[in-house]
TrEMBL record:
One of its GO terms (cellular component) is cytoplasm. It holds the Pfam family Peptidase_M17. GO terms for biological process: proteolysis. This is Peptidase B. CDD domains: Peptidase_M17. Keywords: Aminopeptidase, Hydrolase, Manganese, Protease. GO terms for molecular function: manganese ion binding; metalloaminopeptidase activity. Belongs to the peptidase M17 family. It comes from the Bacteria. Residues 311-318 form the Cytosol aminopeptidase domain. PROSITE patterns: CYTOSOL_AP.
Length: 467
């Protein structure tokens, strides 16, 4: 568990080392203004102001050194501007020369993130404290850092310790913290309560890892309903269309959509947004056994549509379709789902950009603007209706996978759209939920992508009543 509160302190003019930020496009101007002694230190370190680089500038006394940090050439600091420094600097207390860190407080905190649950000898690092004015600007960013860390922790946890029951426990923890109600439909009760595709995907797992639909409700009954849906496939073997070893290696992260939805629910409840929050997580393990779902099977979904299973490894859309149909049974102002759904989205956009699908132009524009403003970008792909033909089945209303390898992310999103009632405002994220290589503030492993952009959109849409 990462506690980021110790990363910050109110500035009361206490002793602290100064952090100078150096814009890359003004590096020469900055260097020319240095003393000969400091210019020599810059040259010796080959410091050139590149973002993320730093150099120690000696003081008159041995312990009087300060730090210069290279940042992007824009007036405000990016979210990740201080992340590299937070990872490299010695423990201590630091003060930005230019004052309040703003969004960069996020990177300062997340640069100190560690996932050390399984380390036999991993002492917690001493906190690096960044001073800031007492004006409340860091607190919202700190909550977002905590939410980002929640996603990382859940995704990084191996499937043995993060099955459907453990995912349910994580939801209950958040519910208890914020006074929300949780209901769960588990095992064969999914059939009697009409969640057949969730049951079909998860029925091959052991009884201890039985499939379930987890539902959290919070907020005033008469407020606009905001429904968050997260794909909670806690491990994905591919089913009888079994994955190879390389494809299965990271499948502990296939519940990354659920982690995003839960973290977003936490942010909504912390901010006390005036909504009736509804969180739906279909939690399953896609396993192999004698009763596993077979290629060619036809499943009747909650909406009444029948689905032919072309591929048991296209299971995420199966568990989501029942959850989305259930979401639409209530008058809902907005539905947002997160899912680690397709490799095709990663081929198109790489690991950093989650694919965004929606027909709501206003919401799409808000998320795009907020994503760029807070360094949490997304990229919109089209719900191209002519590709509905790729979901054709000869024996059922539709198939769960396309008949070709083209446009896989679009086809998957179109499949989900068949279960969202006309007129509903719906947003679908196809996210990787993972950093394949480490970057400042973003270590290799689980990662939240599009989370902060979406939360800021929700604040714009609904306003906040937090006190």
């Amino acid at each position: 568990m990462n506690e980021f509160g110790s990363c910050f302190d109110v500035d009361r003019a206490q002793d602290a080392r100064t952090l100078h930020t150096v814009r890359e496009d003004r590096f020469d101007e900055w260097k020319n203004g240095l003393s000969p002694r400091h210019r020599a230190a810059v040259d010796a370190a080959a410091f050139d102001g590149k973002p993320g680089s730093l150099v120690i500038l000696p003081g008159q006394e041995a312990d009087g050194w300060t730090v210069a940090i290279g940042v992007e050439g824009r007036p405000e600091l990016s979210a990740w501007a201080l992340a590299g420094a937070a990872q490299k600097l010695a423990p201590g207390t630091y003060r930005l020369e230019d004052g309040d860190p703003g969004e960069a407080a996020l990177g300062w905190a997340l640069g100190q993130y560690r996932f050390d649950r399984y380390m036999s000898d991993s002492p917690a690092p001493e906190p690096r404290v960044l001073l800031h004015p007492e004006d409340g600007t860091v607190e919202p960013v700190l909550r977002q850092a905590d939410a980002q860390a929640l996603v990382r922790d859940l995704v990084n946890t191996p499937a043995e310790d993060m099955g459907p029951a453990e995912l349910e426990a994580a939801v209950r923890t958040e519910a208890e913290a914020h006074g929300a109600a949780v209901t769960v439909v588990t095992g064969d009760a999914l059939l009697t309560q009409n969640f057949p595709t969730i049951h079909a995907v998860g029925r091959a797992a052991s009884a201890e890892r039985a499939p379930r639909l987890i539902e959290l409700n919070w907020g005033e009954e008469n407020a606009p309903v905001l429904t968050l849906v997260g794909k909670g496939v806690c491990f994905d073997t591919g089913g009888l269309d079994v994955k190879g070893a390389a494809g299965m290696r990271l499948m502990k992260k296939d519940m990354g959509g659920a982690a995003h939805a839960l973290a977003l629910a936490r942010l909504v409840m912390q901010a006390k947004l005036p909504v009736r929050l509804r969180l739906l997580i279909p939690a399953v393990e896609n396993s192999v056994s004698g009763n596993a779902l077979r290629p060619g099977d036809v499943v009747k979904t909650r909406s009444g549509l029948s689905v032919e299973v072309h591929n048991t490894d296209a299971e995420g859309r199966l568990v989501l379709c029942d959850a989305l149909a259930y979401a639409c049974e209530r008058d809902t102002d907005l539905i947002v789902d997160f899912a680690t759904l397709t490799g095709a989205a990663r081929v198109a956009l790489g690991p950093d950009l989650p694919a965004l699908f929606t027909d709501d132009e206003e919401v799409a524009g808000q998320i795009d603007r907020e994503g760029h403003a807070c360094d949490d970008p997304v990229w919109r792909l089209p719900l191209w209706q002519p590709y509905q033909r790729l979901l054709h089945s000869d024996i059922a209303d539709l198939a769960n996978a396309g008949t070709s390898s083209f446009a896989g992310a679009i086809v998957a999103a179109l499949y989900l759209s068949r279960f969202v009632l006309d007129g509903r405002s719906w947003v679908h994220f196809d996210t990787f939920a993972w950093m394949p290589t480490s970057r400042p503030g973003r270590p290799k492993g689980g990662e939240a992508l599009g989370l902060r952009a979406t939360f800021r959109m929700l604040v714009d849409r609904y306003g906040t009543v937090r006190t």
